[in-house]
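Researcher: Please generate the 3D structure of the following complex. Treat every line as part of one assembly.
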Amino acid sequence: MEMTIKDPLGTAVVVLSGGQDSTTCLFWAIKKYKKVIGISFDYGQKHIKEIECAKNICLENNIEHHIIELPILNTLTENSLTRIDIDVDSEKPKEGLPNSFVDGRNMLFLNVAAIFAKQKGAHTIITGVSQTDFSGYPDCRYEFIKSMEVSLTLAMDYPFSIKTPLMWLDKSQVWNLADELGVLDVIREKTITCYNGIKGEGCGKCPACKLRNEGYKKFLQEYKK
Amino acid sequence: MEMTIKDPLGTAVVVLSGGQDSTTCLFWAIKKYKKVIGISFDYGQKHIKEIECAKNICLENNIEHHIIELPILNTLTENSLTRIDIDVDSEKPKEGLPNSFVDGRNMLFLNVAAIFAKQKGAHTIITGVSQTDFSGYPDCRYEFIKSMEVSLTLAMDYPFSIKTPLMWLDKSQVWNLADELGVLDVIREKTITCYNGIKGEGCGKCPACKLRNEGYKKFLQEYKK
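Model: Done. Output below.
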């Protein structure tokens, strides 16, 4: 069976939530690959508006976009991201994981993205995970991503490469990357990161908002003074 | 974070299709683990009767059983197992994979089974894959299973062990294992392996039936003469 990537910069599939990180990755991919396809997962998350953001950004940039329903995550786990009767922690708990955690969520996304990518003849999957922004999600770490590349490649006898352009960047550096890609305003205005589903600057209170807004402040201080 | 399995023979989750192989694994697990939980995936397969078999076998043996809906496989791939307008190949094609192939199906099952297992406090996942009965499914191979154990463990910071009691057995040896476990008649009468959904001896024509029936003949010749 053939195990080479004929065209490493051919088609890339971007796992696109509609938030700052994955949208920055989308624009990074557009600069680098011949064809880019965005996929978003609808797993019954509260901030479903994120997917609308993803869809609109792809439409405006003439990027093929697919929304894949994945209710399995809601079936398997009980947590604040998918159940409307639980409040999202406003502070990250001192011990353990924030209650927005869905165990193995990112792995499942990558698994489905890979099945989809093979259907499309793509070898590259791009995800906006970051070791810096680890927050306790083990399936966002470098060592997991490297292991997952091997598992996916063996599972389908088809070479997969998982690109993580943000792996070692902090949030201010992610803002700077957007600036370098010429899409700072697009990211600022058209993406949602907020766990409570509020666009742009967000609720300002959830962990995701704090990280995003503090990162932006640091970006202005360090790169724009 | 703790990364040890306190009770390796505590709870095991068996991926249970209701066919010969996975049902034999179920009985193997019952002998070995304190608690066994069966999970079956409903992904819109034609032979949905398999799941009924799985359910009944668990009921009769007082085993906790869960049916998990996974329509994503039907969404992502077009093939003869899930679409009623395509006939299953009666002969295995000389080149390539049989048209019942769903790329990455087994990997996705293991991924979801692991998320489920962690919810249940189980570290062990049991699957009836076999390298001998490879049939071109790369995610049934030993090297994939070993890699997947690592990926799952890293993904959830939680040690997973994937047990594959049938990995190096041919079909006659699987029949012999059932015999040794004292469940030969249960497996013969109450499981479905047939791609066309016919219980027991099946249609006799699809690749799964041929493998099962030839294996049984060989078992009788080699172990029962």
